Amino acid sequence: MTSHPTTEKQSARHWFELVVMLVRRDLKVRYRGSFVGYLWTMLNPLILMGVLTLVFTKVGNQSSAFYPLYVLSGILCWNTFSQSLLTGSQSIIGNAGLLKKVHIPHWIFPSVSVLSALTNMLFAFPPFIGVALILGFKFHLSLLTLPLTLVLFFFFLVGLVLVVGTVNVFFRDVGHMLESGMLILFYSAPIAYPIDMVPQKWLPLLQMHPLFYFLKAFRSSLIDAPISVQDWLYLLLLTIASLACGILAHYKLRDRLFYYL
Fold it and tell me: Which end of the chain is more exposed for a tag (fewer CB within 10 A), N or C?
């Protein structure tokens, strides 16, 4: 028996509207009671950029006029990554009450966590443009690759969040381990320090960082020269591998989730 096309369209529209509603809810809850509200999405990256720029220009001898843009682009990528994983790890558990009352696919909530983080990133782009204009930076044609980078980043993060969000239902320590792991990942990522500062013998180890190629891609789109075709292939393979692992883990464990919520 085949499903009617109209029914499928209505179902897809229903889930899309639900995702949009949940993203709006997450953003409202995140900034509820805050006087500045959504402006924190813009202010936080700028504050961190200012601190890291001050430290590395004074201590690390970074004299490039566009170094603040290098740092800020890395912060935008990192904030999206960390927010997705930290909120995504709790996304299924945090909506246990709703899942027990209404039949909703579990994968929707990890996906909403990623979409909320990406929305925050989009809110933070105007300050980036403002800093670029102040510094006299001129954007180039590689900016056109930004949508592709964002699409790959979205599916990459969905895969990771599906894994941690699903596994955290069974092993609640996963969320706590992530909080500690994020510190290690932040300081080991080339966010504040240029990649060419890393000794050649340590470069293969740095390339194993989950954000290495995405940081390169974001900086390529925003401030640097275009990345190579090989780097794009690495990004595509990372995205496929992450999404495949996420779908497989969730598919294998989804029928048991209800008993642990």
Answer: N
For the stretch 167-188, what's the b/e string if a residue is b when 16 or more beta carbons lie within 10 angstroms of its beta carbon? Answer: bbbeeeebbeebeeeeeebbee
| Residue 173 CB partners (closer than 8 Å, separation 6+) | none
Taking residues 8-14, report their average pLDDT: 60
- The torsion angles phi and psi of 66, rounded to 5 degrees, stand at -105, 15
CA separation for the pair 212, 96 (Å, rounded) = 34
* pLDDT tens digits for range 12-54: 677 777 788 888 887 777 766 555 566 777 778 888 888 888 8
Provide the CB-side half-sphere exposure for 229 (13 A, CA).
0
Cα–Cα nearest to 157, from 95, 252, 77: 77
183 is written with which tokens? Answer: 């510190």
Number of residues that make up the chain: 261
For Cα atoms 38, 15, 37, give the angle at the middle one, nearest 5 degrees: 5
Q: Is 200 helix (H, G, I), strand (E, B) or coil?
A: helix
CB 193 within 8 A of CB 60: yes
Phi, psi of 37 (to 5 degrees): 65, -130
Name the residue with tokens 């239902």: 169
Answer for the pair 170, 253: CB distance below 8 angstroms, yes or no. Answer: yes
Sequence-ordered alpha helix ranges (H) in the chain: 5-30, 39-58, 67-89, 91-94, 96-101, 108-135, 146-170, 173-188, 203-206, 212-222, 229-257
